[in-house]
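Researcher: Sequence of Fucose 4-O-acetylase-like acetyltransferase follows. Predict its structure.
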Amino acid sequence: MEKKRIEWLDIAKAISIILVVLGHAGHAFLDIYLGWFRMPLFFFLSGILFKPVLFKNFAGWAWNKTFRMILPYFIYGIAIFAVFNIQHLEMLPDHLYNLLYGGSRLQGPYGVFWFITVLLLTQLLLGIISNFYKWIQILVVAALFVAGHSEIIISFDWPWNANVVMIAVFYYSLGHYSREIIRKYHDSFIVAAVSAVFASLAILVNINGYMDFYLNLKMSSYNHFILDMIIPLLFFMPVIYISNFIAKFPIKEMLKVIGKYSIVIMYLHLPVNIFFRTVLEYSVTPFEFTVFGVIIPVIIGYLFSLTKPTRILFLGLK
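Model: Prediction complete. C-alpha cells:
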C-alpha cells in the first residue's frame, strides 16, 4: 500500500495487541470470544504489509527476516528465564531446548512465543508461493487450510507450532490479497456496520447454543474450516473502521506508540503480570493485568530503542 506508515494500521495493531492482553487477563467470556479473531486479525494486519519476493532474492530475504525475528525470540526467552529461575541456572540447557523446539513446550511466561515462530514461517511460506501464478497461490493456501484441520495434522506435536502455519497463512495471505479492497473500504461505515451486525449475531447464536464455535490457534483448536474462514473475518472491518476513526483524534498518538511496540507487548505482557503475582505476590485484577501488560512493555520497548545493541537484540531492528 502506501510507502509511508499507515496511521490506521498502526492503531489497528495497537487495538489487536490490547485485545490479546485483555484476553489473557482471566475473564473467561472475553477469552473465548476475543479468541475468535484476535490472533487471526494480527496475521491479517501483518499480511497487509507483505511484499512478494523473487526466488533469486529469497535466500537473503529469508535469512534477514529469520535473524531479525529469532534473535529477539531467544534473547527474550533467556532473559525471562533468568528473571524467574536465577537460582536454578542448571535448568538452562533444558530451557534452551524447549525454546529451540518451541510450540507447546513453551508455557507460562513464554505462552505467546508460538506466535513469533508461526508468523516467521507464515511469511517465509508466502514468500515462496507468491512467485507462482495467483490461482496457484490461492489453491495452495486453500489446500493447506483444509489439510491443517485434519486430525492427523492437529494431533502431532509440531516444533514451532508449524502446523498452525497451515491455518495462519490463510489470514495472512488474505490481508495481502485484499489490501486494495481494504484501502478502498477501510473508512466505510456501512461495510463495518454490516460486518459488526453479523459478528454480533454469531456471538448471540453461539451463546444460545445454536452453534459451537471455538478458535484457539496456539492449541490447534479449530473445529470447522468453513466457520474458521468466515467468523474471524466478520470482526476485521469493524476494527479497521474504528482504527481509521480514532486516527482523527489526538489519542491516536498513544495508540500508535502501542502499535509500534506491539511485539514487545506480545513477549512481555505475560511475564510482567506473572512477576506481579509470583515475585511481588500482588494479585492483579483483569483491568490491572491489561494496563500493566501494555504500559510496562511499552516503556521497556522505548528504553530498548535508545541504543543500537538493544534495538538489535530485543527489537530486531538495525
